[in-house]
Design a protein that fits this description.
Layout: E1 5-12, E2 20-27, E3 37-39, E4 45-46, E5 48-51, H1 56-61, E6 64-68, E7 81-83
Antiparallel strand pairs: 1-2, 1-7, 2-6, 3-4, 3-7, 5-6
Length: 87
């Protein structure tokens, strides 16, 4: 299985949205469907609710937008790395 990493670049907490909006870059491949990720440092699972639609910015930069459960806010910090490794 190919290991895909997601590096968190920005986090937005927009009250009208169902979760945190996390913008980041993927390494090692692309996500198919809703990925099963965990924090690369702590091993804690990250509850991904959705992969959001691309925006003009993410089309230009190649970033991905994930909607993440607000309960995972401690792991949703700029610079954090989430991974599919170990699944």
């Amino acid at each position: 299985m190919t290991v895909v990493e997601f590096r968190v670049n920005e986090v937005f907490d927009i009250p009208a949205r169902g979760g945190l909006i996390v913008v980041g870059e993927t390494r090692g491949g692309e996500f198919t469907g809703i990925p099963l990720l965990h924090d690369a440092t702590s091993g804690k699972p990250i509850r991904i609710l959705a992969v959001d639609h691309p925006t003009p910015r993410t089309r230009r930069t190649g970033e991905t937008i994930l909607v993440v459960d607000r309960a995972d806010a401690p792991q949703a910090r700029t610079g954090q790395v989430w991974t599919t490794a170990g699944q």
